[in-house]
What does this fold into?
Amino acid sequence: MQLQIGSSRITKKTSRLPHEIILVHCPDEVGLIHRITGVLASQQLNIESNQEFVDVTTSHFFFRAEVSLSTSCSTQSPAQLKNALAHVLPEQASIRIVSCEPRPVVICATQEPHCLGELLLLNAVGELPGRIVAVISNYNSLRKLVERFDVPFHLVSHEQITREEHEQRVAELIDTYMPETIVLARYMRVLTNNFVDRYSGQLINIHHSFLPAFVGAAPYRQAFERGVKVIGATAHYVTAELDAGPIIAQDVIPVDHSFTSRQMAQAGRDVEKIVLAKAVRLVLEDRIFVHSGRTVVFS
Amino acid sequence: MQLQIGSSRITKKTSRLPHEIILVHCPDEVGLIHRITGVLASQQLNIESNQEFVDVTTSHFFFRAEVSLSTSCSTQSPAQLKNALAHVLPEQASIRIVSCEPRPVVICATQEPHCLGELLLLNAVGELPGRIVAVISNYNSLRKLVERFDVPFHLVSHEQITREEHEQRVAELIDTYMPETIVLARYMRVLTNNFVDRYSGQLINIHHSFLPAFVGAAPYRQAFERGVKVIGATAHYVTAELDAGPIIAQDVIPVDHSFTSRQMAQAGRDVEKIVLAKAVRLVLEDRIFVHSGRTVVFS
Amino acid sequence: MQLQIGSSRITKKTSRLPHEIILVHCPDEVGLIHRITGVLASQQLNIESNQEFVDVTTSHFFFRAEVSLSTSCSTQSPAQLKNALAHVLPEQASIRIVSCEPRPVVICATQEPHCLGELLLLNAVGELPGRIVAVISNYNSLRKLVERFDVPFHLVSHEQITREEHEQRVAELIDTYMPETIVLARYMRVLTNNFVDRYSGQLINIHHSFLPAFVGAAPYRQAFERGVKVIGATAHYVTAELDAGPIIAQDVIPVDHSFTSRQMAQAGRDVEKIVLAKAVRLVLEDRIFVHSGRTVVFS
Amino acid sequence: MQLQIGSSRITKKTSRLPHEIILVHCPDEVGLIHRITGVLASQQLNIESNQEFVDVTTSHFFFRAEVSLSTSCSTQSPAQLKNALAHVLPEQASIRIVSCEPRPVVICATQEPHCLGELLLLNAVGELPGRIVAVISNYNSLRKLVERFDVPFHLVSHEQITREEHEQRVAELIDTYMPETIVLARYMRVLTNNFVDRYSGQLINIHHSFLPAFVGAAPYRQAFERGVKVIGATAHYVTAELDAGPIIAQDVIPVDHSFTSRQMAQAGRDVEKIVLAKAVRLVLEDRIFVHSGRTVVFS
It folds into this structure.
């Protein structure tokens, strides 16, 4: 399914990613890094890189390491490593050991091709650290674009069924692919709390953002009328409160009075696809913690 | 490329600026540029640069030209030029002829030095196309900073008087300087409609801007809690509706999870001073039209 | 705000673009705009937007207008309009009348998919104001990517033939498509002066750019060793002097010490594709003049 | 000498800075963080924040922590802490313990006020994490600007003496202030290797940077003629090889064809002062390591 640019590309991707990623967060206390690195050293794990952060406001500790196994040894499994870490860490510690297999991603979209296309393209040329396994849409208009990339396209129409029924069908489809991450690439459906809860921590959304914010319909019309000078985009995890989930990435691009509202919308699409691609890469490389409604991003 | 702080600077500034700036806006119709440039050509005015824009949404025409007089001739005054232009333009046309003298600016501030200091510094080193003639504050804490630059500092305390009395005293002080532009450089006073009307089109304000916008107190605390990834600033004309006046300039700077709310506030100050300085320069070079609540900026 | 990939898109594009674009440049003299707009007014042409610039250093005048015909009249052809303009302009004036048909573009590439893919994607979703009619490569590795988009892919191997023979074959292929614009999307061939001359003003190239510039092989290795903090890209017209043609667009993205040279190369690819797409859009919308080795970009 | 914005400002600065900064770098080996944090834990030092980085290319380890002492205990001195760390680290390890006193800075300038003024202003309003103790110039033209801020200004004319004699006088003056950091804020003197060696690792310089780079005189004239679309600035440590020292910070700002070479120079000054201020703040907060000609910046 993936474009091969000669075999060297495969090698590049593999060698670029480490063998295991270790993610730990817990209430801060003295000596945490000392204890974690003690476990790693005792198992002859080579720390390729690590990042650590203490949020002094909430007194919470975050740790991410990319480690490689010494060749000769280490018959230990990730589960055993996790146990060993749990043994030295506070009870409330969250510990994740992630292998570097590219993980499956499902994309939900509606009718706009810009964000979806960008992700499909990155996937096709080997620049997405994951694997898009399916696209689900409530319209048929994106089918051709998706099929260009040999990715399965599923139409789940929302017509003549309830919101709950529609979500149920979408969820059943999603589940057949067992993705860890579901990207809402301009998926123009209001989600029920039920759906959001079902995929808690797995849903990533993108929306345009303005200074100041505009409520109500036709935001680009409002942005035009207000004469804004930048247009932004925000990628975030989805939570029950609409558009208020933890922010993963944001950026803006400049516009000026000569932009019509249609050209502002074009600028908005340009920045949306860049910000969403950045966020999806960060998520797929396991560089993000969510805690107390905020992200810690080890980029 | 060298800068002299002294009289030579004046020469440079003068030579950089054209002799006259012509600003016209009116409902669009066929042949407007033809008619304007006809008047200029007939008076042997040399167009050093010009910019023209038609807002197709409102069907409104904007024109700005920097012109120089041919040496030999042109005993015509700006008033005569304006008359000649009015003669060929629609009745509703707004016509301004501005000479390139650096114009007086008054700054109102409260206690924060970052925006005020930036403007005073640009003024001192000859990089502001205007002249700061006074600073007015409702506290005394910025006095020393202002006096470093040999600019008059006026304390107008708001204590033990009504808002209206305070504004009246400030206005009387402002009026002694006859400024065309009044910059609110973090002036933390709510203005009455009366004051805003009195200086309609003359008041420039700066405020921090967030994606998403935060209402209520302690915005940096909220920005921190929401984990924003950019912090912005907006410079705008002041109108009766708070913070909703026509936008002159906007920009953002990146922040991340490692910023405390105090460091976010520092980042906010950094971007505020850059955006305000940009806006003030644009205003003082007469590069801005305001129409239908939006600016047209010929930068 | 919704995008239809299908025939409705054409309508949108057409309605967004004006009916004719008029481009004039010539040595500056008094009254040029007056004369041009006089011709337009006399033909009942509606100026949708126009931009004008005088390069005071070279005393050269540039003018671009988007005009629409009044419905009732105007049996005049573009050729007649051009004649009418030539009649009132200096002899040396360059005058172009361009209709708004999306024009054919040929892309030359070698083995890297990022720039090529971005252009193919924009083309597929209707966000490129032109039409990619063919891709030519000296390797076969990009074939699959191109064919995903139903665009003809031509392999012209450079093996076992001279540079001149290879270029001759490429040129013959290009000419069958009669493109106005040829985009070198990471086309890693040194071009002969002969080839550059043959397509003078039609070739657009993209290359990475560093502060400071690095000469010699492995620039990303050098950028890494020097610890640069930004990586840039430059899109430019191709002239005989390598990489010294008129610049169309430039931008940079931030990097830091944690980037390996491979990750710097990834960052470089990200900015290259953004800058090239921007440049190609500007070219296809006829927003660029080239004069005295510089571009004037009416964006 | 410093502007006091009420006593709260002092508090803010003090509370913002940690009590001690620990900087370690050495060849990487297993268990380094474990050993360092073990020493810190055993001394009841609270890690407020820390950052760690392994440069896998050179296999070199970098560590920075901000630590606070528990109130009740710790009669240990920085020297004792350093010894304890040295005891557990490789012999080649570089260990620095820095207290958070704002450190003295000397600025060398020539005639341009923009970078100097920005630093003086930040210093005056309490936004520079250091203390400017003197300005030295080979011209007298900046005296007034410096004296506005009650900072000693020293004229050391280069006329009628050799380069070596001039540098000797400058060095003697610098040494009376015992600064750790010397900022060359557009100091237009070619430095001898002797001078550079004397202040190895202490000299910070700013210069404009272009894409592409321009050699020879009048770079802004060249940038104009080449029609560049961005203008940048680079702040770096000074080494024997001119402008090739380790890069601390870089940024660019957009320009276009409408900028004269004088306006490009203005844009260059704007970005220079922003980049230099950023670099000086990073240096004064001890966020920078230099190794193998590159910086590691823990921002």
In short: The interface with chain B takes residues 3-6, 12, 16, 49, 111-114, 117-118, 121, 124-125, 127, 141-142, 144-145, 148-150, 220, 258, 262, 265-266, 269, 274 of chain D (CB under 8 Å). Confidence is low (pLDDT under 50) at residues 1-18 of chain D. Chain D has two domains: 2-99, 103-298. The domain at 103-298 of chain D is CATH 3.40.50.170 (Rossmann fold).
